[in-house]
Amino acid sequence: MKRHEAREKALQALFQIDVGHIPPDEAIGNVTGSGEVDPFLRQLVFDVIEHRAEIDELLRSNLEKWKLERVANVDRVILRMATYEMKYVDDVPVSVSLDEAVELAKKFGDWKSGSFVNGVLSKVKAALQK
Which family does it belong to? Predict the structure, then answer.
């Protein structure tokens, strides 16, 4: 599985976990069906959950005129995934994480999601580079 596809599946699984409050393994199973689970997909899902408090704090400090809880569910999950990658995944360039997040937002969010995600993550990127 390519990383782009793993990100899409991780987004779908994390969305189910966030909105449906289901266990991570069940959510991963729902999006992958039976068979082997991609290690990057598993890493994204479990590590975003593990680091959620730090990720959310970083997002809150970079949202202007928004509360994280009011951000659309899909956008919030995308922001969490990308922030996790930008902060914790050394083998993925920050620009790739940001670009992938914008593409996911365009595909799964509404018509404003791409620019919203880009704006927030650009601020997160700047904050991480300090």
Answer: Belongs to the NusB family.
Which residues of the chain, if any, have pLDDT below 50?
none
H-helix segments, the chain: 3-20, 24-32, 39-50, 52-60, 73-88, 94-108, 113-128
> Which token pair is 90?
């050394």
Q: Output the pTM of the full model.
A: 0.95
- What does residue 34 show for φ and ψ, rounded to 5 degrees? -85, 155
Residue 16 burial (10 A CB sphere; 0-12, 13-18, 19+): buried
Task: Assess contact for 86 and 58: CB atoms under 8 A.
Answer: no
* Domain parsing of the chain, residue ranges: 3-128
